[in-house]
């Protein structure tokens, strides 16, 4: 008579042995993006080139030409004047780009020139954020735990979200911000009075030490790997506050952020 219990036992032993042969994966070997893909899908051209890299290269070249032309127009190529020009450098930490939602965790901006180095700076943690979708919240928390470890529901920050927007716009678009009653950093009347170089300027006059495009907006320098999240995080921050800010000077209006 056939012994079914022995047969089942042998099968169980084989399965156990097969399981033992599987390669062991340590926690440190598990990549976040392998199981929790955070970010936008990578699109490639027929030549296998990343579309974003190609777009970024085109944007960089276009911005380089615009900035160079603006510098030459404003300084006439004078080296000493170029050294006085002020530039903005921004950095951002996020909770990952989850299904098109990019929550800002920390933001920092430095203003510098080639003569004095960093002349102004600010930074702040950003939050708290409420994410209703459990899966998206867990993915955002996972990203935080694996990177900066800033809590999603942080209760204490250096400034609230609305103040952060004013700090950013007050530096990126000081002329526009001033027309709306927003003066921050080096572009407050008090700071301009302290700096002898600004004593001859009137409120609203074009500052000779900053570069702007035809819409009175400044260029901002950021790391290539932060570019997409920088854009997405700022856009989500504006939407979360209900802002529809296009950056145009509106005369005879009382627009407040």
Automatic annotation (TrEMBL):
Maelstrom domain: residues covered: 99-202
Pfam (any one): Maelstrom
UniProt cross-references to InterPro entries, sorted A to Z: Maelstrom
Entry keyword set: RNA-mediated gene silencing
GO BP term, example: regulatory ncRNA-mediated gene silencing
Keyword rRNA-binding part of the UniProt annotation: no
Claim: Ubl conjugation is one of the keywords in the record: no
Family the UniProt entry places it in: Belongs to the maelstrom family.
Entry protein name: Maelstrom domain-containing protein
Lineage: Eukaryota, Metazoa, Ecdysozoa, Nematoda, Chromadorea
């Amino acid at each position: 008579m056939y012994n079914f219990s022995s047969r089942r036992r042998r099968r169980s032993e084989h399965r156990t042995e097969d399981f033992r042969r599987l390669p062991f994966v340590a926690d440190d070997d598990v990549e976040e993006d392998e199981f929790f893909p955070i970010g936008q899908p990578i699109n490639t051209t027929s030549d296998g080139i990343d579309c974003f890299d190609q777009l970024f290269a085109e944007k960089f070249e276009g911005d380089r030409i615009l900035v160079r032309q603006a510098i030459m127009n404003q300084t006439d190529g004078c080296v000493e004047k170029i050294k006085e020009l002020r530039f903005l450098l921004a950095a951002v930490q996020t909770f990952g780009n989850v299904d098109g939602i990019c929550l800002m965790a920390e933001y920092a901006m430095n203003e510098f020139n080639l003569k004095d180095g960093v002349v102004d700076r600010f930074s702040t943690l950003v939050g708290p954020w409420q994410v209703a979708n459990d899966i998206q919240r867990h993915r955002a928390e996972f990203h935080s735990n694996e990177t900066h470890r800033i809590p999603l529901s942080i209760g204490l920050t250096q400034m609230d979200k609305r103040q952060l927007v004013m700090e950013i716009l007050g530096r990126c678009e000081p002329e526009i911000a001033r027309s709306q009653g927003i003066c921050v950093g080096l572009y407050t009347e008090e700071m301009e009075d302290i700096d002898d170089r600004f004593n001859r300027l009137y409120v609203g006059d074009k500052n000779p030490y900053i570069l702007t495009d035809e819409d009175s907006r400044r260029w901002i320098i950021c790391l290539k790997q932060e570019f997409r999240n920088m854009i997405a995080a700022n856009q989500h921050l504006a939407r979360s506050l209900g802002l529809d800010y296009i950056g145009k000077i509106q005369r005879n209006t009382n627009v407040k952020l």
